[in-house]
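ok posting inputs for the flavin-adenine dinucleotide job
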Amino acid sequence: MNFKTYKYVVAGSGFFGAVVAERIASKLKQPVLIVEKRNHTGGNCYSKDHAATGIHYHPYGTHIFHTSNELVWEYINRFTDFNGYHHQVLTTYNNKVYQMPINLETINSFYNLNLKPFEVVEFIQGEAAKSGINNPQNFEEKAISLMGQPLYDAFIRGYSIKQWGCDPKQIPSSILKRLPFRSDYNESYFFDPWQSIPTHGYAFIFDKLLKNPLIKVELGCDFFHIKSHISENALVIYSGPIDRLFSYKFGRLTWRRLSFKERVKNVRDFQGTSVMNYAEESVPYTRIHEPRHLHPERDYPVNKSLVIQEYSHADNGEDPYYPLGGDANTELLNKYKAELQRHKNLIVGGRLGDYKYYDMDQTIASALDTFEKIRSTHDG
Ligand SMILES: Cc1cc2nc3c(=O)[nH]c(=O)nc-3n(C[C@H](O)[C@H](O)[C@H](O)COP(=O)(O)OP(=O)(O)OC[C@H]3O[C@@H](n4cnc5c(N)ncnc54)[C@H](O)[C@@H]3O)c2cc1C
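and the output
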């Protein structure tokens, strides 16, 4: 294949790369090459049918589309419709199931009380005051000073240790910005006006995004293997890890990685919901996903369900999921960003390029912005 003919080369086919490519092809009417090192498009949002059960699932973790951004909502609706699914999360602690985020139902159930919304804030303040923490110095102290020790120990401590792989005392207190509970029975996980699951799954969206004949997708193709074959004048839009782009010259950014264990259970419904958190440190996984609940409109087997346990691990960029953040990583990131300024034909974005947790709508918004910059500075 002659890579040199392409004026636009996109590395990565997640939402960032796919949306930028779609815009270039449909608005600038220019050919775009996408190279994707995996054997499918869609990045971590990829979805497929499970072979043994036919249940549609998200192999890189359950993805719920939700947004308050009208522009993004209008854009994504050109490529899919949604099935009306509304997200709720539950957590198991001590063999009992509670609503998450912590709300009035969680508190009443945990303390075996029947508090009213106008009573609960004062009650929790009383619990928090027992800790005697007035000047919290870290995540743990801040959480206890806001919700009290019992709720923290039950729902936050063990889960945070598993998720972030460190003592919560080492996490900066700035992570906790809002009051970590709701004083009503609202069990909706997201507040956004638009939230749901794409009716035909995410892979369908990516097929549609990339179906313009001006877009050529090369799967199983690592950008670094073809980099030397592309035109010097090409504009490269790269959505892989930024430290890898510069051969880790300043050092490696650190991440958390997830792994998933899939099991088929011989029951129609294993846990009654799509995502169940496991709060205790002694349970090795953080969550169990049951994807049949994401598509209540589908005809699935009555005697089988797919369940997926999720585990969290340290990662130094081999299989990055969540940026770990912190001062040392921020310092490193700033060095890479400064280095990037020296390359005028190179744009870096997406969750890996920006070393930032983005929800899908934020990724799409950032890709649409990036395209507008390309249009204003590179078109022609
Ligand atoms: C467990 C989990 C659950 C999530 N759940 C939600 C949710 O419920 N709702 C929500 O809105 N968001 C969710 N997100 C966030 C969502 O996954 C991201 O917003 C989205 O994937 C970001 O898209 P992206 O294109 O930046 O990155 P990615 O989807 O990671 O795509 C990057 C692509 O680049 C490719 N690539 C990297 N390096 C190279 C290279 N050298 N050459 C070629 N290709 C390369 C990768 O293979 C990948 O396909 C979740 C994230 C995680 C980790």
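notes: The chain has twelve helices and 16 strands. Residues 334 and 340 are 10 Å apart (CA to CA).
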